[in-house]
Design brief:
Arc Repressor Mutant, subunit A; two-stranded antiparallel sheet; DNA-binding; HTH_TetR; DNA-binding transcription factor activity; transcription cis-regulatory region binding
C-alpha cells in the first residue's frame, strides 16, 4: 500500500494529462491483481473439493486458501459466485483437453476414442468438481446456473457442425446432425455419471466401449446411404470445430 501512496503523491505533481494515465494504470493493476487472486481461490476450492467432496463449505475453501472467510467474500459476491467461478474453471479444464482431441488429424475411430478419453480423463481427475456442478448447489445453497448443461450444449452444437460438414461431404442429408450430436453428447454424459458412481470398469474400457458404440452408429448410417468408410484410415478432409463458451464478466472491485 505504501508503494501505491508514493505513486499517488508523485502523480499529483504533474498537471492534467498525467493524472488520467496514472489512474488507468492503477485500475489495470487492481484488475490484474483481482483476477489473479480469484484464480488462486478457485484453485484452493479445487483442493478443498478433493479433500471434503461436494459437501464442502466456504469455511473449507477459506482454510485451503489460507485466508479468512471475509477475505474470500471480498473476491466473490456469494457462494453462487464462487460456484460459477468453479464452473468456468471446470469448463476450461475440459475444453483444454477436448478441443485438440475433436480436431485431431486422425482416422475417425482414433479421433472418437481420443475425444472420449479427454472427457473421461477430466472427470476422473476432478470427480468432485463434476459432482458439485452436476447437482447445481454449493454449500447447501441452490444456484440458478447449470454449468454442466451449458457445456453440453456448447459441445453438442460444435459436434452438430462437425457431423453436418462430413454428412454434406458424403452427399448425405445433414438434417440428422443436430439430434445425432445431442444424442451422442447425452449418452456420453450419462455414461460418465454412471461410471463415476459405479467404477465397475477402467477408464480405458468405458472409453473403448463407447467408441465402438458411436462408430457402429456412424458406420451403419453411412452404409444405409451407400457410403463405406474405413474407420481406421484418415478421411480426405479433416473438418474442425471451435468451442467458445461464454465467460462471466469480472466484477469491478478494488480488493486485496
Amino acid at each position: 500500500m505504501r508503494r501505491m501512496a508514493d505513486g499517488v503523491k508523485r502523480s499529483s505533481k504533474h498537471a492534467g494529462k498525467q493524472a488520467a494515465p496514472a489512474g488507468d494504470a492503477r485500475r489495470d493493476r487492481w484488475r490484474k491483481h483481482r483476477i489473479a487472486r480469484r484464480a488462486e481461490f478457485v484453485e484452493a476450492a479445487l483442493t478443498a473439493l478433493d479433500e471434503h467432496g461436494p459437501e464442502l463449505g466456504m469455511d473449507d475453501v477459506a482454510a485451503a486458501a489460507g485466508v479468512t472467510k471475509p477475505v474470500l467474500y471480498r473476491h466473490f459476491d456469494d457462494k453462487a459466485d464462487l460456484y460459477l467461478a468453479l464452473g468456468q474453471r471446470g469448463t476450461e479444464l475440459l475444453f483444454e483437453r477436448l478441443l485438440p482431441a475433436i480436431n485431431a488429424e486422425l482416422a475417425p475411430i482414433p479421433r472418437i476414442r481420443m475425444a472420449l478419453d479427454a472427457f473421461f480423463t477430466v472427470i476422473e481427475e476432478h470427480p468432485n468438481l463434476y459432482r458439485l456442478l452436476a447437482r447445481k448447489s454449493f454449500a447447501d445453497k441452490p444456484v440458478d446456473a447449470d454449468v454442466v448443461a451449458e457445456d453440453k450444449e456448447v459441445i453438442a452444437t460444435a459436434l452438430t457442425a462437425l457431423l453436418g460438414d462430413y454428412m454434406r461431404m458424403f452427399g448425405m442429408d445433414s438434417g440428422a446432425a443436430e439430434p445425432w450430436a445431442f444424442g451422442i453428447v447425452g449418452m456420453v454424459q450419462n455414461t460418465g455419471e454412471w461410471w463415476l458412481d459405479k467404477r465397475t470398469m477402467s477408464r480405458d474400457s468405458v472409453v473403448e466401449y463407447l467408441t465402438q458404440i458411436i462408430w457402429a452408429a456412424i458406420d451403419g448410417l453411412c452404409r444405409q446411404h451407400g457410403v463405406t468408410i474405413d474407420g481406421n484410415q484418415p478421411l480426405d478432409a479433416n473438418k474442425v470445430v471451435k468451442l467458445a463458451p461464454v465467460t462471466p464478466a469480472e466484477p469491478d472491485r478494488e480488493t486485496s
